[in-house]
Amino acid sequence: LHEDQDGVSQECRHLMSSLPRDKGWVVKHLFKYQGFWHTTRQVQGVLACQKLFQAQETDLFLVTTPKSGTTWLKAMAFAIVNRNRYPRIDHHPLLSSNPHDLVPFLELKLYVDNNVPDLTNLVSPRLFSTHMPYITLPDSIKDLECKIVYLCRNPRDTLISLWHFSNKLRPKTIGNISLEDAFERFCKGLSLYGPFWDHVLEYWQQSLERPERVLFLKYEEIKAEPKVHLRRLAEFLGYPFSLEEEKLGMVDEILKLCSFDSLSNLEVNRMGKLSTGEDNKAFFRRGEVGDSTNYLTPEMIEHLDVITENKFIGSGLEF
Ligand code: A3P
């Protein structure tokens, strides 16, 4: 992983010198930009996207809070949208590429480290992903009213997943971040793209105002009723399953292809790395609902639940 200030442009350094900063989970610092916490590298990527990324009307955006099942959502959306291009499941790109390589992050892959991507050869519809909060999204995405799928997960499991992930990415020399420390920072909103609750609320409100433009999904709900939500996702994206496809078992086939068990056992996801340096296997841990109860004390859970209730009060949103 890159050190905090490596390869950072003059413009970005200048901006960051005026931003609130605090301790990071993996790299030294987090900076608060437009109300949310980012690493240096992300701030630079976000600024580049805001300046350079030009959306097209047919673009589809997958937006998540970190560790809420982004990898899973990318796999499902990619499989849905491209099912006519790749009718043979035994030759499917998801068997040889990590979902993050098939659906690139705007600020973490395409525009990271001063990269200016060539997007001219991408087939339509272009599928992109981002963790950017709504307020930060490049203007053209909002102006063109592009479709956005937003996925989040209950804050307890999100925190535990983020804690494990951060410890995997932390340089060995600095050791692990303790659970108590991670918990305290998360509760204060001091986590990657946090405050978690503000991120979720922004997109929740957008989904209420414009349901045809923003689909709001929860990890737990997909886990509980995968078929229902895969169909919902396909319809929203504009690729509903036909009666014929339903009869052929296409819904089950896609769910199986994208399941935790199949993806996590593939060679590419056990041994491969992303171009941005992370091990593919870091994105697959347990993939279950409620694992946080194995780590958080009842007091911690209660504390977190009270924050969630207070933040979401009157919004109609619950976890
Ligand atoms: P856990 O750490 O709780 O296991 P993200 O993809 O946003 O980084 O989120 C990672 C979380 O999603 C991890 O949660 C990971 O195990 C889980 N995950 C990854 N692939 C999945 C899949 N195909 N189905 C369900 N969960 C998955």
UniProtKB/TrEMBL annotation:
EC identifiers of the protein: 2.8.2.-
Gene3D superfamilies cross-referenced by the UniProt entry: P-loop containing nucleotide triphosphate hydrolases
Keywords tagged on the record: Transferase
UniProt-recorded Gene Ontology molecular function terms: sulfotransferase activity
Highest taxon listed in the record's lineage: Eukaryota
Domain Sulfotransferase: 58-315
Family: Belongs to the sulfotransferase 1 family.
Name listed for the protein in its UniProt record: Sulfotransferase
